Amino acid sequence: MSKLSIKVVVAGRTYPLSVAQDEKEKVINAAADINKAINLLKDNYAVKDMQDLLAMTALQLASKENNQTSTTDDKSILLKIEEDLQSLSNDMEA
Q1: What DSSP element (H or E) covers 68?
Q2: What distance in Å separates the CA atoms of residue 23 and residue 77, rounded to the nearest whole number?
Q3: DSSP three-state, residue 7
Q4: What's the domain count of the chain?
Q5: What global pTM score does this model have?
Q6: Quick check: 31 and 48 in contact, CB under 8 A?
Q7: Taking every pair of C-alpha atoms in the chain, what is the biggest distance, in angstroms?
Q8: What sign does the CA torsion over 18, 74, 22, 30 have?
Q9: Tell me: the pLDDT tens digits for 22-81?
Q10: Which whole number is the average pLDDT over 6-15?
Q11: What angle do CA 56, 65, 61 make, to 5 degrees?
Q12: d(Cα 29, Cα 19) in Å, to the nearest integer?
């Protein structure tokens, strides 16, 4: 299967990714869901620290994922997103 190079923006930062062609739309939608969740948290709570917002978003999306029946593809995308969030968190700590 062919890999595509795409760029997604999560929490205001751009991430270059290589994804299978059939996963492109899922990854783009996942990034949009993350950004939407971050913005909802920003708008509804006094949380301004991006690391806190990302952690809260990860918890929300992970618990949502656990409450739904998911396919292996969905789980692999979620794992990739969690890895990217961890990497972002590590970059923010440095």
Answers
A1: none
A2: 8
A3: strand
A4: 1
A5: 0.65
A6: no
A7: 45
A8: negative
A9: 999 999 999 999 999 999 989 888 888 999 999 988 888 888 766 665 555 667 777 778
A10: 94
A11: 20
A12: 13
Alpha helix (H) ranges present in the chain? 24-44, 50-66, 72-93
Instruction: Report the alpha-carbon distance of residue 2 to residue 7 in Å, rounded.
Output: 16
Helix (H, G, I), strand (E, B) or coil at 2: coil
Overall size of the chain counted in residues: 94
Question: 54 and 88 in contact (C-beta within 8 Å)?
Answer: yes
Q: Which residue type occupies 51?
A: Q
Cα 10 from Cα 28, distance rounded (Å): 10
17: DSSP letter: E
**71 Cβ partners below 8 Å, 6+ apart?**
none
Expressed as residue numbers, the domain containing 52 is 3-93
Q: Can you name the residues that pair with 6 across neighbouring β-strands? A: 17
